[in-house]
Amino acid sequence: MKLATARLSLVPLDPDADAEALHTAYGDPEVMAWWTRPETASAAETRLLLAEDNAQSGAMLWTIRAENDTVVGLVGLLGAVEIPGLTWILAKRAWGRGYATEAAAAVIEHAFVHVGLDRVEAWVQASNTRSLAVCRRLDMTCRGMLAQRYTHQAHPHEVVVLGRTNTRKRQEPSPVLHVEPVLPVADVPATLELLQPILSARVGFAVGEPIEVAGLVLGPWSVGPSLRLVTASQSQSGPVTLALDVGTEFDSLYQRAIEAESGQVEPPVEQPWGVREFVFQLPDGHRLEFSAPA
Amino acid sequence: MKLATARLSLVPLDPDADAEALHTAYGDPEVMAWWTRPETASAAETRLLLAEDNAQSGAMLWTIRAENDTVVGLVGLLGAVEIPGLTWILAKRAWGRGYATEAAAAVIEHAFVHVGLDRVEAWVQASNTRSLAVCRRLDMTCRGMLAQRYTHQAHPHEVVVLGRTNTRKRQEPSPVLHVEPVLPVADVPATLELLQPILSARVGFAVGEPIEVAGLVLGPWSVGPSLRLVTASQSQSGPVTLALDVGTEFDSLYQRAIEAESGQVEPPVEQPWGVREFVFQLPDGHRLEFSAPA
After folding, report:
1. What number is the average pLDDT over the span B184-197?
2. What pLDDT shows up at residue A168?
3. Are residues A240 and A103 in the same domain?
4. Is the same domain home to B151 and B221?
5. Do B177 and A245 touch (CB under 8 A)?
């Protein structure tokens, strides 16, 4: 189905017919700097990539056509994802005119009104301010962050996950806003002193003198990943395992862990599923499994 | 210190001199619908409230003055908060002109350039679309959600915490992006079947046939509160306690918990610190402590 906006027409992708024109985007290193893979080497490789993406179950992709029906980019919904995912790419010469926002807004409207989707999501590299601005103009708001490493890049990066819900549908309130694991420890003040510098954490709340219960917030905001320390005698729990996604900070966290005065560190291992992990075991036996993209 | 914008001047609050003019905002039920307290009954009560707010440690409050130096509202930074918190209020007659955005932008600029703050935060009721739009225009993005109940209201509501960092300062990358507690259970598939409907959760990943490890995502997005189930023999952990903030969904979650086929429910109790809690204990002994504002 064709879609139209004030300045653009969106025509369903035909990889064979459109590869040549789209190669000006997919073959450009500057355009592909934020992409999951490096630029393609030829229009033929671009055609293969487009055919693959288009064949994914549920994919809906349109070429973006500006004046004179010129193809300037691609927009649509990714296939083979659990949460509908918005994607777009624009040739460099078409940047800076609001085309990405205009095209993606039409796709979202189509997805909500005609396809009946409940929500769409976009994954944007945290330093990609242009795409974050597109998302902001699309009324997509941040839902959380994760870490990713693209196979052609040496280091992982932070990714912002933004989303917009279909307000035409009845919205379910969020049933669970936050999960805070509770770690029973023999000595809450000593554990705070041990964990605060490793995790760059701040004490969100503390009860008792000396402290018997404390909340550690792992980030600079009022909300965010957190954990609670309680005096061991108040709880029946045994040692707890926590999996912590540490994004780009794996090495510095490991350094701080091995420099800590107590606790045991197991050295980093690379898991077959593409993550690096190290374990920091607290004196009370709790295991903090730090992981990042390998 | 006075601040000036294109259309407005911001003059440090003087509760005695400004109470009368500001009472058109604080005394108006429509303006106060999103506030932490009901409207004030008189200019004298407004003066008391302003004096209290102004006296909080670290508070920086300015009256917003439009044409002819008329006071149309208040803007500034809250005192006695751990993360600097933006606040604003506008008399109804001054709505819809972008005054809140213009005034708050000047306050943020002042806070970043002259005070040298690292970040500012705003807490906005999730259904307050006007204030969320102000935050969007101020480049404040969502950092998380929490639940609150104002003492004059019958029910709790969801609050969006939005924030903006001072990009003039060196930004620390987020050390920990996410914390996922790991629950060892005898039977992962049975536990999934038990927990999914109670928590409105979806399975983010599953390993093994039958499933030996699974990630439960507690929300509709790719990221969000989550927990991991592992087959008990793979782990040395004992029973785990998790504190779950369930916002407005306390009663429906409790209903689903007592209708579950297994597990034990302890009935809701009201804690002296202003929250309601109920505990759902899994067959493996793990305790899920659900809490919401009382």
Report:
1. 95
2. 86
3. no
4. no
5. yes
Query: Which 3-42 residues of chain B touch chain A by CB within 8 A?
Result: none
A147, A163, A179: residue with CB nearest B218:
A179
Residues of B in contact with A144 (CB under 8 A): 177-178, 221-224
pLDDT digits (tens, 9 = 90+) for B115-149: 999 999 999 988 888 998 899 889 888 788 888 88
List CB contacts (< 8 A) between A82 and chain B.
Answer: 202, 204, 222
Query: Do B39 and B108 have their domain in common?
Result: yes
CA of A177 to nearest chain B CA: how many angstroms apart? 5
Do the domain assignments include residue A170? Answer: no
- Residue A173, in any domain of the structure: no
pLDDT at A85 over 90: yes
Same-domain status, A137 and A208? no
Confidence at residue A236, expressed as pLDDT on a 0 to 100 scale: 56
Judgement on whether residues B124 and B256 belong to the same structural domain of the protein: no
Q: How much is the pLDDT for B173?
A: 66
Number of domains in chain A: 2
Q: Provide the pLDDT confidence category of residue A223 given band limits of 50, 70 and 90.
A: confident
Taking the CA of residue B49 and the nearest CA in chain A, the distance in Å comes to: 24
Contacting residues of B for A142, CB less than 8 Å apart: 141-143
pLDDT above 90 (res A66): yes
pLDDT single digits (tens) B15-63: 999 999 999 999 999 999 999 999 999 999 999 999 999 999 999 999 9
Q: Name every chain A residue with its beta carbon within 8 A of the beta carbon of B178.
A: 144-146, 225, 244-245
Distance (Å, whole) CA B178 – CA B133: 27
Residue B199 is part of which domain span? 182-293
